[in-house]
């Protein structure tokens, strides 16, 4: 998630398509909480999501400690995600732009089939800040969205609507990649997006359970999921307008998403609902070098990953 007052000018270049290849594998399955009976989505194994996080950590460690825009760590992260999607049967493309004098990339992955006049999108930013590896911010969202996409492929899901997944570049510079994508779409193409779901920080170590309140249908979908687990939620306010849903919302696309908290501090009322430490930030390593694989709450990551799949399935039928 970008800093509240961050934002730099975007110098857009032409859209380019590149081919990237890499290795890596996902780990085995793990048991998740029981979801509401009406849900058709599969369980998202937390072990698989954490395997992606470990890969992103290794990439950052090998590339100066970060995965930031215009750096080798970002390029390697994009390579890793794209290879997984290509192997699973997605149609992928890379969108190129320029920001702050460096080349940036968005990765877009379409699942074949479904009504392309009704597109459900799920996305997350893949870049970190330069000061750390960005495992919660936002390896957590990126990895959960990736594993949800792979679950679509494993299950052979054939939704009524068309599914599209996205990983954004240069979010930390002011939502640059997602804004470039939205601005590159003709108005008729934007109108085909029936909903965009955003996931930016979903494994905070002192977590809260926050739901975007932008679109009533999407908001209710997430709230219903958590209600089925007996988990209370609150409206997300800390990151309002500070992540990649904002360009979509500004263009009139219905948006929603989940968030587990950044540098705001947990209140006693929130600790009573969710556990954790009163008076401490939801993520004490926000935008810091300690945002590593040790900076993840497994329960929050598990619940939110399953909630992503629940919403993707529910909203695409």
Strand percent estimate: 15-25%
Described by the principal axes of the CA atoms, the overall outline is: globular
Order of helices and strands: EHHEEEHEHHEEHEHEHH
Distance between the termini: 30 Å
Walk across the major sheet and give the strand order.
1-2-3-5-4-6-9-7-8
Radius of gyration: 18 Å
**What is the β-strand count?**
9
Mean pLDDT: 91
Give the biggest sheet.
Answer: 9 strands, mixed
Number of helices: 9
- Helix share bin: 25-40%
Structural classification: alpha/beta
Q: Spans with pLDDT under 50 lasting ≥5 residues?
A: 5-39
Molecular structure report:
The protein is an alpha/beta fold and 317 residues long. The chain is 36% helix and 18% strand. It has 9 helices and 9 strands. The protein has helices at residues 46-62, 72-88, 135-155, 176-184, 187-191, 216-229, 245-250, 268-274, 298-315, and strands at 10-11, 91-99, 102-111, 115-125, 161-168, 193-199, 210-211, 234-235, 255-259. Strands 1-2-3-5-4-6-9-7-8 form a 9-stranded mixed β-sheet, sandwiched between helices. Strand 4 (115-125), helix 3 (135-155) and strand 5 form a beta-alpha-beta unit. Helix 1 (46-62) packs across helix 3, helix 2 (72-88) runs parallel beside helix 3 (135-155) and helix 3 crosses helix 9. It starts with 9 loop residues before the first strand and ends with a helix.
């Amino acid at each position: 998630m970008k800093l509240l007052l961050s934002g730099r000018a975007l110098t857009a270049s032409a859209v380019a398509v590149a081919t990237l290849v890499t290795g890596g594998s996902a780990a085995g399955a793990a048991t998740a909480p029981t979801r509401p009976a009406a849900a058709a989505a599969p369980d998202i194994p937390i072990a698989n999501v954490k395997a992606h996080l470990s890969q992103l950590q290794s990439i950052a460690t090998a590339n100066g400690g970060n995965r930031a825009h215009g750096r080798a760590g970002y390029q390697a992260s994009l390579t890793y995600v794209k290879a997984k999607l290509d192997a699973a049967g997605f149609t992928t493309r890379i969108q190129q732009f320029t920001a702050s004098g460096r080349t940036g990339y968005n990765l877009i992955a379409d699942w074949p089939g479904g009504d392309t006049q009704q597109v459900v999108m799920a996305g997350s930013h893949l870049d970190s800040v330069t000061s750390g590896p960005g495992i919660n911010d936002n390896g957590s969202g990126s990895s959960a969205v990736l594993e949800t996409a792979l679950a679509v492929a494993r299950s052979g899901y054939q939704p009524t609507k068309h599914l599209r997944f996205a990983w954004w570049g240069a979010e930390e510079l002011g939502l640059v990649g997602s804004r470039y994508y939205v601005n590159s779409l003709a108005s008729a193409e934007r109108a085909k997006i029936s909903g965009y779901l955003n996931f930016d920080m979903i494994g905070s170590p002192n977590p809260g359970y926050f739901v975007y309140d932008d679109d009533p249908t999407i908001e209710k979908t997430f709230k219903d999921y958590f209600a089925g687990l007996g988990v209370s939620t609150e409206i997300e306010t800390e990151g309002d307008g500070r992540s990649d849903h904002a360009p979509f919302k500004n263009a009139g696309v219905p948006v929603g998403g989940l968030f587990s908290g950044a540098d705001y501090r947990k209140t006693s009322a929130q600790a009573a609902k969710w556990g954790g430490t009163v008076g401490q930030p939801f993520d004490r390593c926000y935008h810091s070098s300690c945002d590593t694989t040790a900076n993840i709450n497994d329960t929050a990551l598990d619940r939110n990953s399953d909630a992503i799949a629940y919403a993707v399935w529910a909203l695409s039928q």
